[in-house]
Design goal:
With 242 residues, the protein is an alpha/beta fold. The chain has one domain: TIM Barrel (Alpha-Beta Barrel). Helices cover 38% and strands 16% of the residues. It has an eight-stranded parallel beta sheet.
């Protein structure tokens, strides 16, 4: 059965103190959120330990924003799966467009990171999506097909979440139309051997449009950036009207 996953990606925001204050304000606001919705906060590495400590006994899971494919070694600035697993991280974002654009991530390194996460028992959230130029050139399906098939080569599809994030909609306020997001996510699902993989939409998701997005038949959740930075906003996203 496909699980609904509402995940906040804080990117490079929030100190430990700010992260703790956030969850203290958030927890009372999500008491009425249905139990079948998985809530995840993907925080900077420095805040992971503090969040996990404060969220003991809570329904909120904690995710990281990157993972290295090696177990250990001379990889300055990187972090391994065992380091994340030890402190209680449950999810990790892999292949976000910002990692691809600014830090040289490729489909091959994404594939290696996915496998490393699964090996240690952490669920990866695989991000895929096209640029505005690629969409305007009618290359969306070809780009998505390439990203998905390369990233998922020899990957276990039974410990996986996918997020469709059209790059042109991330942080721009220009949300992909809900029915179009649904169509592309349906295409992604057609490429999978496990049709029950949860597939999120990401890209300028906010309380004002989350109900429409989540009403779509193929969409199983949201990966949210800016709108996840305020507890009131994230609580509204988590409590969308089905």
């Amino acid at each position: 059965m496909r699980k609904v996953v509402i995940a906040g990606n804080w990117k490079m925001h929030k100190t430990q103190a700010a992260a703790v204050e956030f969850v203290q304000q958030l927890i009372p606001q999500i008491e009425g959120v249905p139990d079948d919705r998985e809530l995840v906060l993907c925080a900077p590495f420095t805040s992971l330990g503090s969040l996990i400590d404060k969220l003991q006994g809570s329904r909120i899971r904690v995710g990281a924003q990157n993972i290295h494919w090696e177990k250990e070694g001379a990889y300055t600035g990187e972090i391994s799966g065992s380091m994340l697993k030890e402190i209680g991280v449950r999810y990790v974002v892999v292949g976000h467009s910002e990692r691809r654009q600014y830090f040289g991530e490729t489909d091959e390194t994404v594939n290696a990171r996915l496998k490393a996460a699964q090996l240690i028992g952490i669920t990866p959230i695989l991000c895929v999506g096209e640029t505005k130029q690629q969409r305007d050139a009618n290359e969306t399906e070809a780009v998505i097909t390439s990203q998905v098939t390369r990233a998922l080569a020899d990957v276990n599809q039974y410990n996986l979440v996918i997020a469709y994030e059209p790059i042109w909609a991330i942080g721009t306020g220009d949300t992909c139309a809900a029915d179009e997001a649904n169509r592309v996510i349906g295409h992604i699902r057609s490429l999978l051997s496990n049709k029950e993989v949860s597939i999120q939409y990401g890209g300028s998701v906010k309380p004002a449009n989350v109900d429409e997005i989540m009403s779509q038949s193929e969409i199983d959740g949201a990966l949210v950036g800016g709108a996840s930075l305020e507890p009131n906003s994230f609580a509204a996203l988590a409590g969308y009207k089905a």
